[in-house]
Design goal:
Elements lengths: L2 E3 L4 E6 L7 H6 L2 E8 L2 E9 H11 L4 E6 L2 E12 L6 E8 L6 E10 L9 E5 L3 E6 L5 E7 L9 E3 L9 E3 L6 E7 L19 H4 L8 H19 L18
Parallel strand pairs: 2-5, 3-7, 8-11
Antiparallel strand pairs: 1-11, 2-4, 3-4, 5-6, 6-7, 8-10, 9-14, 10-13, 12-14
C-alpha cells in the first residue's frame, strides 16, 4: 500500500473584459467565464477553454491543486463553486481560490485497490465501505490516491481499517483509526420460496346451505319448521288437576 504523489496540474486561462449578457456568446464558443481570487491577491476575471477545464476538473476535483497559468504568472489554486446550467447541466462559471503552498490544507483523497483477494475464490465478497479518506498536507504533497493491496486479505472477515494504511511523512490521515474502509464478507444466497398454497374455497353442500325458494337456506327453513311444530305441540297441551274428585248424585224430588 503506497500513496501516489500528485503530479502538477496546469490550466491555461486568459484575462477577460466581457461580462453580463455578452457571456452567453462566449459560452457558445466553448469558453467558460471564471474568477481567480484569494488572500493578498487582487481578483481577476478570466476565461478557460471548456474542454481543458473539464479534463483538469476530472483529475483534481475541488481538492487538488491546479496551477492556473495567467499570462506569465503561475497561480496555485483550488477549484470551487462550479456553477452549472439548471437544465443542460453545462458548466457556466468557475471560481479559482488562490492558496498558499506553504500552509497545510485538509482534503479528501481517493482509495485505490490493486490485485485480488484470495478470499474471493472461497465465497468471499468484497465490500467497499469508504472510497476516500481525509488527509492533511501541504498542497503540493497531497497524494493523488492511496493504494490498498487486496492480495493481503486472505480470508472471509478480513478488513482494512484506517490504522492499516501506511504512515507518511508528507501527509496525515485525519480520521478515526478504527474506521473500516474495505472488508471481505461471506456470500449469502437468498432462498426465495414461491407462494404456492391456494386457499380452498368454501363449498356449501345441500345439507349445509342449499337455498330454498324464498331465498333462505334449507337448513334455516328446517329449523323454522321445527320451531313451529314445537309451538303447536305446546299449545295443544292443557294442564289437568292431578287430584281426582267424585261427583255427587242428584237428589230425587219427592
Amino acid at each position: 500500500m503506497k500513496p501516489e504523489k500528485i503530479q502538477k496540474l496546469h490550466l491555461t486561462v486568459t484575462a477577460r473584459d466581457i461580462f453580463g449578457k455578452r457571456l452567453k456568446k462566449m459560452r457558445h464558443q466553448g469558453l467558460i467565464p471564471a474568477n481567480v481570487f484569494g488572500p493578498g491577491f487582487k481578483s481577476v476575471a478570466v476565461t478557460a477553454q471548456a474542454k481543458d477545464f473539464v479534463k483538469a476538473y476530472k483529475t483534481a476535483g475541488e481538492t487538488g491543486v491546479v496551477y492556473v497559468d495567467l499570462a506569465k504568472e503561475e497561480i496555485p489554486s483550488l477549484i470551487g463553486n462550479v456553477q452549472r446550467h439548471p437544465i443542460t447541466n453545462a458548466i457556466i462559471h468557475i471560481d479559482f481560490r488562490k492558496i498558499d503552498l506553504k500552509q497545510k490544507i485538509e482534503t479528501t483523497v481517493p482509495v485505490k485497490t490493486i490485485n485480488e483477494s484470495p478470499a474471493l475464490s472461497i465465497g468471499g465478497v468484497l465490500l467497499t465501505q469508504s472510497d476516500h479518506v481525509l488527509v492533511e498536507a501541504l498542497p503540493e504533497e497531497i497524494p493523488q490516491s492511496i493504494e490498498i493491496d487486496l492480495s493481503k486479505l486472505l480470508e472471509i472477515g478480513a478488513e482494512v481499517r484506517i490504522k492499516d494504511l501506511p504512515t507518511s511523512t508528507t501527509y496525515t490521515v485525519k480520521e478515526d483509526a478504527e474506521k473500516v474502509l474495505i472488508s471481505i464478507i461471506a456470500h449469502k444466497e437468498e432462498s426465495v420460496t414461491p407462494e404456492t398454497t391456494v386457499a380452498t374455497p368454501e363449498v356449501l353442500t345441500e345439507k349445509e346451505g342449499e337455498l330454498s325458494a324464498d331465498g333462505a337456506t334449507t337448513e334455516a327453513a328446517a329449523e323454522g319448521d321445527k320451531k313451529g311444530a314445537d309451538s303447536k305441540s305446546d299449545a295443544s297441551k292443557v294442564p289437568t288437576d292431578a287430584k281426582k274428585t267424585s261427583e255427587k248424585p242428584a237428589e230425587k224430588k219427592s
